[in-house]
Each structure stands twice: as structure tokens, then as C-alpha cells.
């Protein structure tokens, strides 16, 4: 009962006393700020820690992948050294009868699990792809899954070494995953005579995974108590690993166990790299998996790196708890200081409050002298409060006299306000009508620009078709056998018309152009545009200077980029009055640090140039200086290039010529970034 009375007393104090209410008002924001700081710190710490952990395990997987690449390289070099050895070459030339048996005995000298020499008559033992590489004299190293019979043919000891008891299943895996190298050996006449076949068995290769683990997870690189692991999979079965059977006590190896279903689907079935937390046999690990491919590209296994997740979480939770406790202690300490320092400050305020309460009850009370210095703000406030009470008594009478006049004025003002409100409603209605008309006008303008753009972009390929038809009729008549090139150009232009029409019709739908955007080599599209432009300018005195040096591929819509390039080249030709030198060049687009951003096309004409006053308007819709132009070519081209994250720039000297540069990015930007470009 006493506890309840205590709580009610403090609740009443907080509700009625200024001292405690002000204390709450000053303390609560600090408390909420600190709690928010704790929450934000917790969120960002966990997020950063997890992202950093994923980045680290991805880097660990890259190191393990590089180790496997070096393993295959060392294996191939061992086999090459064996093929180039004196003993092998001497027997190859003078004693081929004993060569096969002697080769099988040499695997132990070259750290290989098997070395076999096949005559060329057994070339059909290998796949068509492997046969083609061998006949062309190319060495190859690849992963391969073999059954026990195939393993026995390579080395009678391999089937026993490859056997894996499958835990929890009661069966034994007989197949083996090998890293295999093939080295072709030719005779003096240049004909394939022998195939040197060697490699290692990856089943139960504990020394290999331990070596990779020691390389990836050096001492001191993991949190205290964590465990770094490396695993080789054949399919979904762990064939070589240092993942323990008991992660708590670090006992045994989880050889013969299977990977989780989500990893199996992501890596083995979809062929993608998996980087995330995963359940590895008996515990959660920060894990990274990548597929191992056979010579034909089929996924035959996986390479895994990872480390225990709990020590990482424990370390960061400990840090967060320590920080939270420190902040709470600071909060309690500051609250005590605020309370003790404000107690004496709130007493004068409470006296002023009591006087105000007494005056409200009809009593004549004044604050008077407070136990404060003369210059104190609360002392000055008390004097002003007493003066205000005196003035309030004097003005009460005046207030009563002016009350009636005030009511009359309020009524007049209310009537005027009603009139103003009605007028404002009418203006708002007119504003809504004007806004609706503006939206409709904008829609009509956009539709008009798109329709005019369709008509304009169809003119160029139509002109090429008509030009080739006239050339056929004028020079060769009905002998179509001699005009195959022109007929091919006609078909190409018809296809282009269809693509342009389809793209522009899709452009009118919600979401913009829907044509496929893929990676293309820029030089090929530029060469195709030159073919089209040359076909349409055969009667003109135009020379082309072409310098294609771009090496970076770009992510674009091929048909739309072709449309842009043809439009810019035809604009350059028209600017030169259909005669002169047109320069077309490509190069890689580099940033200030020399990093490749994409590729660029530079189109330079020696025409009339562009005046300074027109430079700011050339990309505006419907702006043109030609009588026959629509003014939409550059506007549509700029929209197409901006839609894939690129840009068009122009440099021009009036009377000397112009240079248009199209910058195209290697990777198309995200939709939000494209919206910013288009808006700009």
C-alpha cells in the first residue's frame, strides 16, 4: 500500500508542479536522443559488421579459387616436365615397347596420383571438345567426375582411395573427383602420336584443403574462438574438408556429408556463387561457395570457404552492450546533476505560480521580494508580474467597456471574412481548371513530339530504299543479278524501319522503351552505321575517315544506337552540303584516374558549324535551321543515349565544322540514375 501511495504522490507532482514537469521536459529529449543513438549505433554496427564479414569471406573464396588455379597450373607443369624429361624422350624415340609400363610407374616422382600414356588410337576415350584441343596441340587441365571403373583404368589404387562413407546414409560413394591434365605429344612429322594423361584425386585430399586453409585464414585474421574452413565438393557431397564433425570441440572432419538445400540449388543447379550465412553440417558459418566446372562447362562440384558465425556475433554484441551501459550511466549521472541544480531554480517559479493561482481565485496577492539578486531574471520576472497584475486591475474596467464594441467589430470582420473565403474558393476552382488544362497541353505536346519523331526517323531509311531503287532502275534495268548489294541494303533498311516503329510504339507505353538492352562491341555497330550511310550517299561527294580503336563493350539497344549514329552522320553530311570529309572515330572512355567507364564515338564534319546563339538550343525539340528538317533528330538521339546512362556533347566553330561525341557506359545505370539524366 505504501508503494502505491508513493507512486501516486510522484504522479501528482509531475502533473501539478512546474519543477518536475520542467525536469521531465529537459530530461526526456536527452533520454530519447541517447536511446536513438544506441539504436542507430546498434543497427549500423551490425550492418557494417555483416557486410564486412561477407566481403571478407568473398575475398577468402577468391584466394581459395586462385589456389585451385595454381594447383592445376602446377599439375600441368609437372606433366610437362615429365614429357620433356630425358628418360621419357629417350624411350619415346628408341624404346616405345616399354614406354607405357614405365610411364605408369612415374606418378610418385611427380606428386601425381596417376600418369597414363595413351596411344593416338585411343583418342575416342575423350570428348569431342577434348579431342579437338589435343589435335590442335593445346594442353588442357579440367575437373572431371569418374566412376570406379574409369578410376581403375587410370590407377588400380584410385578406387580404394576415392571411397567415401556417406554419413547418416549408410552407403559408400564410389565416384571420384579428379583434376586432370592432358598433354598431346607429336612425332617428328607433326602428327599426334601419344596423349600424356595425369592428375590428382581430390577425394580425401586433407593435405590440400589444409594447405588452402592455412593460406586463406592465417593466424590472427579471425575473431577469437572462430574457425576457418575450406571444403571441396563432388556434387553436393563433401569429399575433402576441414569442417569438424563437432564445431564446439573441433573433433573429426565432416567428410561424406551433404551441403544444405539452399546452397545446392543456388550453386549446383543455378551455377551461381553463394555468399551468405549457411548451415554447415552442425553450425552456422559465414560462407562462400563457387561452382567447379568440367571441361564442357557442366557443374561437377563446389569450392567452399567460411568461418564460424557465433564468435563474430558474440564479439560485436559485447561491444554494443558495453557501449549501451556506458551511455546509460552517463544519462543517470547527468539527470542527477540536472535535478540538483534546478531545484533551487524552480522554487521562485513555484512561488510565482502560487500567486497566479491565488489571483485566479479572486485574492489580491503579489510576488514581492524573492531570495534572489536584483539582476536575476526571475527577480525581474516577479516585479514585472506584480506590475502586470496592477495594470490588469486597471484594464479590467476598460475591457468590460470595450467588450460590446469588440463584438460589433468581430461580427463585421466575420462577414468580411466570409466574403473573402467565397472569393478564395472561386480562385482555387479556377486554379484547378488551369492546372487540368496545363496537364492536357503537356500530354498533347509529348504525343506530338513522339509522332513527329516517328515520321522524322523513318525518313532516312526510306530515302536509302528509294535511292537504291532509282539506282537499280537507272543503271541495270531488270538485271537484278548485278544489284544484289543494293537489294540487301533495301532489306536491311526495311528491318530498320520495323525496329524504329516498334521501339517508338513501345516508347508511348507506361515505362518507356522496352527493347532489349545488351552488351555490344561499339566498333561493329559503327561499321554497320557506316554501311547504311555510304549506301545513301553514293551520289554525294563525301569521303569517310574511319579510326575504330574502342576495346570496351557497352550495354545498349543496338537498333536505337544505330539510329543515333546514322542521324549524327547524316547531320554532318548535310552540314557540309553533301560533300567533304567526315571523320568517325571510336575510343575507350576513361575517367580522371584512368579507369575505363565505357566507350565513345567522335563524329567530326567540316561544314558550316553552329553559331553560339544556337548551341544552347540544338537539343530542343522542333528546333532546326534546315527548311526540310523537323528539329527532332538530336532531341530523340539525346533521349536514347540518356536512357542508357550516356550523354552527347558538341564542340563547334562557326564556319569550320562541328564535333559530336557520344559517351556510352559499359554498364547501364540504375533506373533512378537514368531518371536524373533524362530530367536534366
TrEMBL record:
Alphabetical UniProt keywords: Cell membrane, Coiled coil, Membrane, Phosphoprotein, Transmembrane, Transmembrane helix
Coiled-coil portions: 389-437
Record-linked Gene3D superfamilies: 1.10.287.130, Histidine kinase-like ATPase, C-terminal domain
CDD domains in the record: HisKA
Top-level EC class as recorded in UniProt: transferase
Domain Histidine kinase: from-to ranges: 453-668
PANTHER family, per the entry: HISTIDINE KINASE, SENSOR HISTIDINE KINASE
Stated name of the protein: histidine kinase
Lineage: Bacteria, Pseudomonadati, Pseudomonadota, Gammaproteobacteria, Vibrionales
Amino acid at each position: 500500500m505504501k508503494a502505491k501511495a508513493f507512486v501516486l504522490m510522484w504522479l501528482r507532482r509531475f502533473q501539478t508542479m512546474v519543477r518536475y514537469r520542467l525536469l521531465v521536459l529537459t530530461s526526456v529529449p536527452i533520454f530519447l536522443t541517447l536511446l536513438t543513438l544506441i539504436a542507430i549505433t546498434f543497427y549500423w554496427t551490425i550492418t557494417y559488421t555483416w557486410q564486412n564479414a561477407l566481403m571478407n569471406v568473398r575475398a577468402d573464396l577468391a584466394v581459395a579459387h586462385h589456389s585451385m588455379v595454381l594447383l592445376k597450373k602446377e599439375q600441368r607443369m609437372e606433366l610437362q616436365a615429365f614429357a620433356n624429361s630425358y628418360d621419357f624422350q629417350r624411350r619415346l624415340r628408341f624404346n616405345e615397347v616399354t614406354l607405357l609400363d614405365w610411364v605408369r610407374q612415374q606418378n610418385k616422382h611427380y606428386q601425381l596420383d596417376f600418369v597414363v600414356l595413351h596411344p593416338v588410337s585411343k583418342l575416342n576415350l575423350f570428348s569431342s571438345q577434348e579431342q579437338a584441343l589435343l589435335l590442335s596441340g593445346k594442353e588442357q587441365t579440367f575437373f572431371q567426375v569418374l566412376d570406379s571403373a574409369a578410376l581403375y583404368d587410370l590407377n588400380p589404387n584410385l578406387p580404394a582411395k576415392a571411397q567415401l562413407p556417406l554419413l547418416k546414409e549408410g552407403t559408400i560413394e564410389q565416384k571420384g573427383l579428379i583434376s586432370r591434365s592432358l598433354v598431346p605429344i607429336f612425332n617428328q612429322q607433326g602428327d599426334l602420336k601419344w596423349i600424356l594423361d595425369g592428375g590428382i584425386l581430390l577425394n580425401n585430399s586433407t593435405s590440400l584443403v589444409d594447405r588452402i586453409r592455412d593460406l586463406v585464414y592465417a593466424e590472427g585474421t579471425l575473431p577469437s574462438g572462430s574457425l576457418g574452413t575450406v571444403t571441396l565438393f563432388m556434387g553436393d557431397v563433401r569429399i575433402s574438408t576441414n569442417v569438424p564433425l563437432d564445431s564446439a570441440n573441433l573433433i573429426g572432419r565432416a567428410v561424406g556429408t551433404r551441403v544444405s538445400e539452399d546452397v545446392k540449388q543456388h550453386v549446383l543447379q543455378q551455377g551461381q556463387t553463394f555468399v551468405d550465412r549457411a548451415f554447415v553440417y552442425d553450425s552456422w558459418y559465414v560462407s562462400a561457395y563457387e561452382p567447379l566446372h568440367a571441361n564442357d562447362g557442366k557443374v561437377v562440384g563446389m569450392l567452399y570457404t567460411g568461418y564460424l558465425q557465433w564468435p563474430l556475433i558474440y564479439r560485436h554484441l559485447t561491444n554494443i552492450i558495453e557501449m549501451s551501459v556506458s551511455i546509460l550511466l552517463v544519462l543517470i549521472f547527468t539527470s542527477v546533476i540536472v535535478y540538483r541544480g534546478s531545484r533551487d531554480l524552480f522554487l521562485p517559479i513555484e512561488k510565482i505560480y502560487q500567486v497566479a493561482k491565488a489571483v485566479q481565485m479572486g485574492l489580491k496577492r503579489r510576488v514581492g521580494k524573492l531570495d534572489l539578486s536584483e539582476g536575476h531574471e526571475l527577480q525581474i520576472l516577479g516585479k514585472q508580474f506584480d506590475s502586470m497584475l496592477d495594470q490588469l486591475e486597471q484594464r479590467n474596467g476598460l475591457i468590460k467597456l470595450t467588450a460590446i464594441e469588440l463584438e460589433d467589430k468581430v461580427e463585421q470582420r466575420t462577414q468580411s471574412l466570409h466574403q473573402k473565403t467565397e472569393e478564395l474558393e472561386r480562385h482555387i476552382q479556377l486554379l484547378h481548371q488551369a492546372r487540368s488544362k496545363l496537364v492536357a497541353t503537356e500530354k498533347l505536346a509529348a504525343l506530338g513530339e513522339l509522332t513527329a519523331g516517328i515520321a522524322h526517323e523513318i525518313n532516312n531509311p526510306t530515302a536509302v530504299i528509294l535511292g537504291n531503287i532509282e539506282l537499280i532502275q537507272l543503271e541495270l534495268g531488270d538485271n537484278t543479278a548485278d544489284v544484289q548489294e543494293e537489294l540487301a541494303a533495301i532489306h536491311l533498311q526495311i528491318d530498320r524501319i520495323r525496329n524504329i516503329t516498334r521501339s517508338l510504339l513501345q516508347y508511348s507505353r507506361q515505362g518507356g522503351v522496352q527493347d532489349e538492352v545488351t552488351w555490344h562491341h561499339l566498333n561493329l555497330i559503327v561499321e554497320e552505321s557506316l554501311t547504311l550511310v555510304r549506301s545513301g550517299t553514293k551520289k554525294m561527294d563525301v569521303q569517310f575517315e574511319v579510326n575504330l580503336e574502342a576495346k570496351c563493350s557497352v550495354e545498349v539497344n543496338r537498333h536505337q544506337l544505330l539510329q543515333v549514329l546514322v542521324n549524327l552522320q547524316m547531320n554532318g553530311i548535310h552540314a557540309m552540303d553533301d560533300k567533304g570529309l567526315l571523320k568517325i572515330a571510336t575510343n575507350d572512355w576513361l575517367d580522371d584516374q584512368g579507369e575505363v567507364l565505357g566507350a565513345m564515338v567522335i563524329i567530326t564534319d567540316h561544314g558550316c558549324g553552329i553559331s553560339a546563339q544556337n548551341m544552347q538550343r540544338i537539343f530542343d525539340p522542333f528546333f532546326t535551321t534546315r527548311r526540310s528538317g523537323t528539329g527532332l533528330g538530336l532531341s530523340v538521339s539525346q533521349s536514347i543515349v540518356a536512357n542508357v546512362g550516356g550523354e552527347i556533347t558538341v564542340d563547334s566553330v562557326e564556319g569550320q565544322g562541328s564535333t559530336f561525341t557520344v559517351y556510352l557506359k559499359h554498364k547501364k545505370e540504375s533506373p533512378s540514375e537514368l531518371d536524373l539524366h533524362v530530367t536534366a
